[in-house]
Structures are given as structure tokens and as C-alpha cells.
Design a protein that fits this description.
The structure holds two protein chains of two kinds. Chain A is of the alpha+beta class. Among the domains of chain A are: about 90 residues, Immunoglobulin-like (Sandwich); about 90 residues, Sandwich (Immunoglobulin-like), CATH 2.60.40.10. Chain A has nine helices and 21 strands. In chain A, strands 3, 4, 6, 7 and 8 form a five-stranded antiparallel β-sheet that branches. In chain A, strands 12-11-14-15 form a four-stranded antiparallel β-sheet, with no helix packed on it. A four-stranded antiparallel β-sheet of chain A has the order 17-18-21-20, with no helix packed on it. In chain A, a hairpin with a 2-residue loop joins strand 20 and strand 21. Chain A starts with a helix and ends in a 49-residue tail after the last strand. Chain B is an all-alpha fold. Chain B has one domain: Growth Hormone, Chain: A. Helices cover about 60% and strands about 0% of the residues of chain B. Chain B has seven helices and no strands. In chain B, helix 5 packs antiparallel against helix 6. The longest helix of chain B has about 30 residues. Classes of the chains: A alpha+beta, B mainly alpha. At the A-B interface, strand 8 of A face helix 2, helix 3 and helix 7 of B.
Chain lengths: ~525, ~230
């Protein structure tokens, strides 16, 4: 049809162009139909959007955000509509752009406080609309300020400890001058990389001082704020500062002094420990304690009970003899059997020492060692001069024993034997012995013990013993002490005295010798 | 001996009397009239600070009570009740933004504050009564309601003092009529509040207490600006 019209006259040209246009439109329509037919399954009306939240940073303006639903495969537009208490009509959002995508910004002119807003968002595309649920809000309830800005830290290095001064500015969009809002601040601090934040309330001040900081650490500080009765803002950007360690090096002199004094103390302590004995003696001088003469404390500590007893036996008795011996005048008792000797030797009275030559361990007595060897020699000479007499042994000694526990103390008078001249001459001391003391007469070195009867008491210090005869032996043989009566000189039987078990010579109770 | 006992007991009685007298007037110190001798006169700055503190406290209590009610009754927040809530004080024209409040004259602003406070006197009293009779609420909430009631009363007295002081100082003219006859300020249909439910009443009061606090702050920073603004 169109071809025929081609050859028509001028008015027919229009129809030619119309025909071309019609062809184009037909093509377009065909295409559309085709695409629609192809995509008919995925296209739909948009999904329902959701209003998320609204926020007012300074109680003068506010912003609301929504989340769109599915767009249904078609370009979808969103519109926010609101109604307001005490205001008739429905209005659309004044500003979709300032706050970004899917948001609506209400400026001051459109913001009213203390009135309810009812917001809805409508999503629309070619195929339909979708409306969100209404969202009711009052600006008074949605106040949340921006974070404070320009947080600066300043370290003040004082002598004792450093302190940290924090300063900040209120958020830039809030009005602090008219009293419309009251801003309160909070800050938090953490040290190094720990996760423990320490929070502080600053009230309405825009500065704060921290005193609990120590050198050598990196401190991170954050600040946030609150308007009236609203919500807290986000924390500000972190600001950190490193407090230098130089304070520790500031006083090397004091450190040096402290180290030196410590070394000195340690050395003094070591010296004290090394010389603790002398120190102890100097501080606590030994108090002289009572010492019993002749007793060796070490022997006492180490020895057995028998030794102790022996020590006591030996040691306790001899020293008095010795000392008495020294002080005494040269009186002695001559005990003899031979009357000739007596007459001949009456002039030759010599002082002889009973072997009282004992070595004392104690210091006190060591000085007064009575041992003089020449004395013994003298005795030897004397004894040799007196041929009548047997040379008496120089090893005989007199034991004295103090029997303290003796119940049956025979209260008899005893005399100490001063000297044994021969085997039948005893020199007794002049002084009277304690009644409880016993005289133990004993001879050493294989010389069998020998007891003689006292024949006669010549004077107060001369006792004449009976010479023993074997035949005259009629003494009782009691124990070991009374052996060998036969070995010695015979005795007169009628002078047999009663001999005790302990081997003592019991004198007949006589008037005191002195 | 009996003399000392008597003097000690007298001291105790005096102390008790003083303490009890202090308790009756919480927060508001006695403000002297010009004639009284030996009375410490507070500055306007100080007076403003006190009433602002008081209003902040009042708003805090009202917010607490409101959130408690929300827990118990759970009204849907997105109810389409656009017409629904009308506070009985909505007849009082109040500035609903910072600029509006700043533009308003001091006397007008003071009057608005006083009107609000007066309007809430009766409703809060009845609210407290209804809370005391309902055994659903614990003592804590009931005490808060009573406290709220007292605070409105005291805050009104405080603001009246402030207004008086301002008039004396010549800051505002004598056109503030509330001091003369408070009943004039009451809205004509004052019985509206009886129709309100408790929850709505709390909601309205929370809003109005916030208004009072904000208006007082604006007024103070306009009249006696200092670093506290």
C-alpha cells in the first residue's frame, strides 16, 4: 500500500513519512512485547520498604532512614510522606539528598519539637506501589548528638608523676550559647594495647585531667557526649599520646647513691656473718660461770657415768689434800713398828709428799702443780738411809672418797694418812677429817694390799702398826681386800681388829688426835 | 545535772524542728521578701539554676514512669491514631522550636511556663490518687507519682518567685497575670484530662515537663547569660 502511494503527488509524501514512522513504532512495540514476554516472570511491584530510624543531632533538625524492599526488577522510586500533629494534610519529604541515599532530611523550618510525626515511605515502580508501616516519632525522643571533635592531649611532666590534660570541642552543630541544649561529656582511657577502658564523667566541662598515668606508656583517649535526656553519641576518634620515659633517667645520681649504699650494706652484712663469732663475743661477752675445781667439763660431757663417778672420786678429793698439805706445818704422823727407828729418826723428820702429784686439767690448778721430782728423790734417800725400813713405794696414794649417799655413816673419827713411811709406818695428818669421809688406803703396782693393825698410838700423830705374821693370821678373809695375810708379817692375833669390807682401817674410837 | 539534761534535750528538739522544717520544702529554699531582716537574698542567677535543676528532675521522673507504663501496657508505638492523643494542654500555645522560643517575649514565655505548671496541678493529683488505689503498681511507682505531684507544686512556686524577682528588677513588665489570679489561666474545658487514660496522661506530662525545662533554660540564658549556658 505504501509503495503505491510513493508515486502519488506531494500530499502523498506525508503519508510516506507516516508509513515509515508506523513501521518504526510497530517495530518498537514488537520489541517491547517480546521483552515483556521474555521477562514477564521476574518483574513485579516493589517490595515493602522499612523505616529504620530517625535521629536529631541537635534538637533542631532530624533525619530519617529507610530500607527499600526488593525493587521488583524495575527501577523503583521511593517517596516519604508524613503527617504531623496539629497540622492538617500530608506532606512529602523536603530533602532527599542531603543525608544520602534512602534518607530524608528535615531542616529547621520543617522540624517541630514536641509534636508527633507519622512517617510512611512508598516505593513505586511501573508495576505498582508498596507502602511501609507508619512510623511515629517525636523529635524530643530521637536526640543523639555527633561525637565531640578536636580531642587534644597534652602531657604535663611534673616531678612526682606526669599528668595528662585532655581537651575537646563540643560537636560543631550543637548550640551551646542559647541554653537550648545542655551537653554532658564522658571520656574513656586505655593504656597501651589492653582492652580495659577506664571511664570518667566530665559533666559539662570540655576539659579533663588524668593523674593516674605512668611514664613509658601509650595512652588512648576517647570522648562522647549527651544532650539533655537523649542518647549518648558515638565515641570520638581515638587520640593517643606516648609519655616518655625520661623521668626515670632524670636522676642518675640518686640511683647511683642508692646502688652504692646497697652494696655497702651487703658487704657489711657479709663481714658480720663471716666474723659472727667474734661479734657475738663482743656483743655478748661470756659470763664466767661457777667452775668446780678439778672437774673437766669436757670429760663430763663426753664420758660415761662410771667415768664421771671416777672423776668425782678422784678429782674432788685430792685438791683439798693438796692445798692443805701445802699450808700445813710440817707436822706429820709417823706410823712405825720399829721403836729403834723411832728414836733414831726422830730428828730426821722430813716433809715428804704423799704422791699427791696429780695433774689437773683445769687452768686454775695447773699452776700449782706440786710435782717436784726432787722431793721424791729426797724421799728415796731418806728411805735408803733408814735401812730398817723397807723403801716405801712411791706410788702408793691415798684415795679419798666422799660417799655422800651413805646412809649408815659411821660417826667415827678419822684421820687422814699423810705419809706412808714404810709398810708399817703411816703418818697421819693432824687435822681431823670429816666424819663422813673415809680413808681408802691402797697400794699400787702389784703390791698386794696389805692391812696392818695399829699396835700403838704413840702420840697424836704417830701410829705404830703391828707386824704381821703368817701364823698369826686369824683374820677373816672377807673379799679380795683381805687376801694374803700369809704373805706378810705375822700379826699378833689378839690385836685383830675388825676389818670392814671396804678395806678401811678402823681406828678404835679414840680421843681426837689433836 | 538536770540542767545539762534539759539543755541537751532542748538542743535536740531544736535540731529536730529544724530538720523537719527543711524536709517540707524540698529543693526550694525560703526566699525572702524585701522586708525581712537577716535573710539571705538569692540572686536571680541562683534562682534560675534552682528551678532549672528542679524541672530537670521532674522530667526525669516523668520519663521513668512513662517507660514503666510502656512495659506494663505495651501500647503499639506505630498506632495509626493521628487524632488519638490530644493533651489537655494543647490549647496552650507553646513554641515548638528553638527559634520560636527565642523569638517569644520574656513575659510571654514566663506566662507559658506558669500556665503549663498550673494546668498540671489537678491532673497529677488525681493520677497519684488512682495509682495509690490500683494495686497493680508497686510502691515505687506510686511514690514517684506522689513526688511528681509535689514537684509540680514546688516548681510552680519557684517560677513565680523568679517572675516576681524579674519584675522587681525591671527585667519584665508587670503584665504577667498568673501571679494575680491563677484560675484565669486554666483552660475552659479543664475537665478534658479526666477522659485521658493514665498512659496518655504520662505521655503528655513527659512532653510538657520537657517544654518547661527548655523554656526555663532559654529564659535564663537570655536574661542572665553566663558560662552555664
Amino acid at each position: 500500500m505504501c509503495q503505491h502511494q510513493f508515486y502519488v503527488a506531494k500530499p502523498a509524501l506525508k503519508s510516506v513519512t507516516v508509513c515509515a514512522r508506523m513501521r518504526r513504532d510497530l517495530r518498537g512495540a514488537l520489541l517491547l512485547l517480546l521483552t515483556a514476554a521474555v521477562q514477564s516472570s521476574s518483574m513485579s511491584a516493589p517490595g515493602k520498604p522499612v523505616l529504620l530510624s530517625c535521629r536529631s543531632p541537635e534538637k533542631e533538625t532530624f533525619t530519617c532512614w529507610w530500607e527499600p524492599g526488593s525493587d521488583g526488577g524495575l527501577p523503583t522510586t521511593h517517596h516519604l510522606y508524613y503527617e504531623r500533629e496539629r497540622l492538617e494534610g500530608t506532606y512529602e519529604c523536603p530533602d532527599y539528598l542531603s543525608a544520602g541515599r534512602n534518607s530524608c532530611f528535615f531542616d529547621k523550618n520543617h522540624t517541630s519539637i514536641w509534636v508527633d510525626y507519622y512517617l510512611t515511605v512508598m516505593a513505586s515502580n511501573a508495576l505498582g506501589n508498596a507502602t511501609s508501616d507508619p512510623f511515629k516519632m517525636d523529635v524530643m525522643e530521637i536526640v543523639k548528638p555527633d561525637a565531640p571533635g578536636n580531642v587534644t592531649l597534652r602531657v604535663e611532666e611534673r616531678e612526682a608523676s606526669p599528668c595528662l590534660h585532655v581537651r575537646w570541642m563540643p560537636p560543631s552543630n550543637t548550640d551551646t550559647k542559647s541554653g537550648w541544649v545542655t551537653i554532658k561529656y564522658e571520656l574513656r582511657v586505655k593504656k597501651d594495647n589492653s582492652n580495659n577502658w577506664k571511664e570518667y564523667t566530665s559533666g559539662t566541662q570540655t576539659h579533663f585531667s588524668l593523674y593516674s598515668v605512668s611514664p613509658g606508656g601509650v595512652y588512648t583517649v576517647q570522648v562522647r557526649c549527651l544532650l539533655d535526656h537523649g542518647s549518648w553519641s558515638e565515641w570520638s576518634n581515638t587520640t593517643f599520646v606516648k609519655i616518655s620515659n625520661y623521668l626515670q633517667n632524670e636522676r642518675p645520681l640518686s640511683m647511683l647513691i642508692s646502688i652504692l649504699s646497697a652494696i655497702l650494706f651487703i658487704m657489711a652484712g657479709l663481714i658480720l656473718i663471716a666474723k659472727r663469732k667474734s661479734v657475738k663475743q663482743w656483743v655478748l661477752p661470756p659470763v664466767p660461770g661457777p667452775k668446780i675445781r678439778g672437774i673437766n667439763s669436757q670429760l663430763l660431757q663426753s664420758g660415761g657415768s662410771d667415768d664421771v663417778g671416777n672423776v668425782l672420786i678422784i678429782k674432788q678429793s685430792f685438791p683439798p689434800i693438796y692445798f692443805v698439805w701445802e699450808d700445813q706445818m710440817e707436822d706429820y704422823l709417823i706410823v712405825t713398828e720399829n721403836e729403834d727407828w723411832l728414836s733414831s729418826n726422830s730428828q730426821k723428820r722430813k716433809k715428804s709428799l704423799i704422791p699427791a702429784c696429780f695433774h689437773f686439767d683445769s687452768e686454775i690448778h695447773s699452776k700449782e702443780s706440786p710435782c717436784h721430782q726432787n722431793d721424791w728423790e729426797k724421799d728415796e734417800e731418806i728411805s735408803q738411809v733408814d735401812n730398817n725400813n723397807k723403801p716405801f713405794t712411791n706410788t702408793g696414794y691415798v684415795d679419798f672418797q666422799r660417799n655422800v649417799e651413805n646412809v649408815d655413816v659411821k660417826h667415827v673419827d678419822y684421820s687422814r694418812v699423810k705419809e706412808v713411811k714404810s709398810d708399817n709406818i703411816i703418818f697421819l695428818e693432824k687435822e681431823k677429817v670429816q666424819s663422813s669421809g673415809y680413808i681408802h688406803f691402797q697400794r699400787q703396782e702389784g703390791i698386794p694390799e696389805d692391812y696392818s693393825r695399829v699396835k700403838e698410838v704413840e702420840s697424836d700423830h704417830l701410829v705404830v702398826l703391828q707386824k704381821q705374821n703368817a701364823a698369826d693370821l686369824s683374820c677373816k678373809d672377807e673379799g679380795n681386800h683381805y687376801t694374803d695375810c700369809a704373805l706378810h708379817k705375822p700379826r699378833k692375833p689378839h690385836v685383830c681388829t675388825e676389818l670392814s669390807d671396804s678395806g678401811y682401817v678402823d681406828t678404835i674410837p679414840a680421843p681426837p688426835l689433836m | 545535772m538536770p540542767g545539762t539534761i534539759r539543755s541537751v534535750s532542748l538542743v535536740w528538739v531544736v535540731l529536730l524542728v529544724c530538720l523537719s522544717s527543711r524536709r517540707t520544702s524540698v529543693g526550694a529554699a525560703p526566699i525572702c521578701t524585701n522586708g525581712q531582716v537577716g535573710c539571705h537574698v538569692l540572686s536571680l542567677d541562683n534562682l534560675f539554676d534552682r528551678v532549672i535543676q528542679h524541672s530537670a528532675r521532674m522530667h526525669g521522673i516523668s520519663s521513668d514512669l512513662h517507660s514503666e507504663f510502656e512495659q506494663y501496657f505495651l501500647p503499639s508505638k506505630n498506632q495509626i491514631g493521628r487524632v488519638g492523643r490530644i493533651c489537655h494542654t494543647s490549647t496552650i500555645i507553646t513554641p515548638n522550636g528553638k527559634e520560636n522560643a527565642q523569638r517569644m517575649a520574656r513575659e510571654q514565655l514566663t506566662e507559658v511556663i506558669l500556665k503549663l505548671l498550673i494546668a498540671w496541678r489537678d491532673p497529677l493529683w488525681h493520677f497519684h490518687q488512682s495509682m495509690a488505689h490500683h494495686h497493680d503498681f508497686n510502691n515505687f511507682s506510686s511514690n514517684k507519682a506522689l513526688e511528681m505531684n509535689d514537684m509540680v507544686h514546688e516548681l510552680r512556686q519557684g517560677v513565680e518567685k523568679v517572675a516576681e524577682k524579674m519584675q522587681v528588677l525591671g527585667i519584665i513588665s508587670n503584665s504577667v497575670t498568673s501571679l494575680a489570679s491563677p484560675e484565669v489561666l486554666l483552660p475552659s474545658d479543664s475537665a478534658d484530662w479526666r477522659l485521658m487514660k493514665d498512659y496518655d496522661l504520662l505521655y503528655c506530662f513527659r512532653r510538657d515537663s520537657n517544654k518547661v525545662q527548655n523554656y526555663l533554660k532559654i529564659l535564663k540564658c537570655r536574661i542572665v547569660p553566663n558560662h552555664g549556658c
